[in-house]
Amino acid sequence: MAKIEIENVSVSYFLRKQGDLKKTTERGAVGAEVLIGRRYLEVAALKDISLSIREGDRVGLVGLNGSGKSTLLKLCAGALGHQSGRVTIEGRVSPQFALGSGLKPRLTGRQNAELKCLYLGVPQRSIARHVDEVKELSGLGGYFELPLHSYSAGMRSRLVMALLRLVRGEILIMDEWINAVDPSLHATVGGLQTQLINRAKILVLASHSRRVLEEWVDRLIWLDQGRIRADGSIESVYAEYQQWLDIRAGKTPPVGA
In degrees rounded to 5, what are phi and psi of residue 173? Predict the structure, then answer.
């Protein structure tokens, strides 16, 4: 049974003091609160977060830049320490923060695909078959046997997108997902994305796009300055979030004004 339990968790990042400290603590439109300690500056990314995600849940995260979305994703993936509280994760986690991370420019497309197989835990006996699937899906032909540094940006993107074929996991963690995709790969990548999400027992996805959220999640969490401001259906939470954005932009008068 896959699950994520987060109980009263706070996460901070620490930086050495430098520059004008009074200006450092000035609040802007985005970003977590910055606190001045005795020796370090503390960036309070998450503050006393409690959250329960169970098998079958499809959870989306919204919030301004610096609201804590990426930090919460890393926490759900078990990839981040915390200063207080408790985190319990049951199930195999597949974090997709940057699918192209770890690729080696001096290695060929094939060698990079083999390394990605090992990293993702593909059984040794299945690696050759999966690598051939990546080659066919990428459409790189002979370039698949050449070093990555010889690729154009578009060719590298093709390899990265084709590596979706290798992703497995009960708990799928996704940050902003795929933006620009080669039009000739768009339908294929969309199909791989659908398979990937449908296979997962839990999905946690951060996105600024309402269309993406409505397509893939049924529960929405709104983060604001490191705290959960709302947690509920995508319709109700996104409406509240959008109204708040409109008020900030001066498009809608505050309630009671």
Answer: -115, 120
49 and 224 in contact (C-beta within 8 Å)?
Answer: no
- pLDDT of the chain along its 257 residues, tens only? 899 999 999 998 887 656 555 555 555 554 556 555 556 677 889 999 999 999 999 999 999 988 999 999 999 999 888 889 999 999 999 887 766 778 999 999 999 999 999 988 888 999 999 999 999 988 899 999 999 999 998 888 889 888 888 877 899 998 865 554 555 555 666 677 788 888 899 999 999 889 889 989 999 999 999 999 999 999 999 999 999 999 988 876 665 65
H-helix segments, the chain: 21-24, 69-76, 109-119, 127-138, 153-162, 183-199, 210-216, 234-248
Secondary element (H or E) of residue 251: none
Residue 65's φ and ψ, nearest 5 degrees, are -55, 135
Give the phi and the psi of residue 6 in degrees, each rounded to 5: -120, 120
For the chain, what's the residue count?
A: 257
Start and end residues for every CATH 3.40.50.300 domain found in the chain: 96-206
| DSSP H or E stretch at residue 202 | strand 202-206
What does CATH list as the number for 96-206?
Answer: 3.40.50.300
Which ranges of 13-172 would DSSP assign to H, the alpha helix? 21-24, 69-76, 109-119, 127-138, 153-162
Give the count of beta carbons closer than 10 Å to the beta carbon of residue 127. Answer: 16
What is the rounded radius of gyration, in angstroms, for the C-alpha atoms of the chain?
21
Assessment of whether the complete model's pTM goes beyond 0.85: no
SS3 content of the chain, % helix, strand, coil (to 5): 40, 30, 35
How far apart, in whole angstroms, are the C-alpha atoms of residue 224 and residue 65? 9
